[in-house]
Amino acid sequence: MSSQETPDEKLPAEQGSAHGAVRVADERNPFADPGLPPHEPRIQDIDERAAKRSERTVALLFTLSMLATVGFIASFVAIPIDKSVYIFPLGQIGAMNFALGTTLGVALFAIGAGAVHWARTLMSDHELTDERHPIAAPPEVREQVMEDFRQGAKESVIGRRKLIRNTMFGALALFPLSGVVLLRDLGPLPEDKLRHTLWAKGKLLINMNTNEPMRPSDIAVGSLTFAKPEGLEEDEHGFMNEIAKAALMLVRIQPDNIKDKQSLEWSHQGILAYSKICTHVGCPISLYEQQTHHALCPCHQSTFDLADGARVIFGPAGHALPQLRIGVNDEGYLEALGDFDEPVGPSFWERG
User: Fold this and answer.
1) What percentage of the chain exceeds 70 in pLDDT?
2) Does a structural domain hold residue 23?
3) Which end of the chain has a smaller Cβ tally under 10 Å, C or N?
4) Mean of the per-residue pLDDT values for the chain?
């Protein structure tokens, strides 16, 4: 028999509540409405000293959140980005990342824990039931909602517990500053970090393959060799950031074949030192054509004439490769005579 054929007198709604639940179970309706258990007061409801302790606990958690937010900002400003620490069992990790993650986690946890403890110990815990109603609420229901809201605000004791209210507002107002501080990473601060590299007068040219200082005799005519500045080791924390600016390529050309006068003056016995970083989007240049003295970037085929000041002869690169002036020290090793003559890599908005 379908539900449509069931006699009206057999419908559960007539034997119990308006929702179909019955007060007493029988054969046809084995599930009775258990109702709500009797309300049991909490210790905070009957002992004001216990309520004060809960109030202080909530305030302490909100205050801890504020301190953690301040610690987040201080860590972001004070800890160097390349500093690392050993944390067991995580191993060697970035000090800034560890500090930011810890302080941000504590700030969020303390706000959440404070709100939960507040709700469970001080807010009203009387169980309320309400009948289901149509989605479109009539005016009297909306008025009832507002009245319930006012009643809830009153029962939350936020007006009377000023210590909780003030510390909660402080925690919620201070925490968003974490996101504001992170806006700093949207772009570099107006400094000159992109204009300088580790190259300086007297820095030896170290072969990237052998990790040894280089002599002019180590570079054959027509060969392409890659070098790094003295003192830059691959196991250092900031190695990738520094080599991305200081990577050097050396090519030896017969001096008579060098067309650019400045390039010839900055070379040593036909050994030219140019930045290895393409001026298009910063890819490493690694292809060299011996007969034409052209260097090719494998990413977007920008081509540079190393015999003519590394000027661009093809591709999307915007300007020539910066050249490093080199010489030989008293021991016969190749050394830099300064930094690059201009910023390396792609153009940037601060570049004048």
Assistant:
1) 89
2) no
3) C
4) 85
